[in-house]
Amino acid sequence: MRPGPSLDVLEARTHSLRPRTTGRVRILLAALVMTLGACASGDQAATEAPDGSAASGDRVFTIGAIPDQDPEKLQRLYGIVADHLSRELGVTVEYEPVTDYAASVSLFRAGDLDMVWFGGLTGVQARLQVDGAQAILQRSIDEDFHSIFIAGTGTGIGPIDDVAGLAELAGRRFTFGSESSTSGRLMPQYFLEQAGVAAETDFAGPPGFSGSHDKTIELVASGTFEAGVVNEQVWNSRVEAGEVDLGAVTAVFRTPPYHDYHWVIRPDVAERFGDDFVSRVRTAFTDLDPADPAEAEILELFGAERFIETDNANYAEIEDVARDLGLITG
Question: Can you give the residue range of the structural domain that contains 31?
Answer without folding.
Answer: 7-47
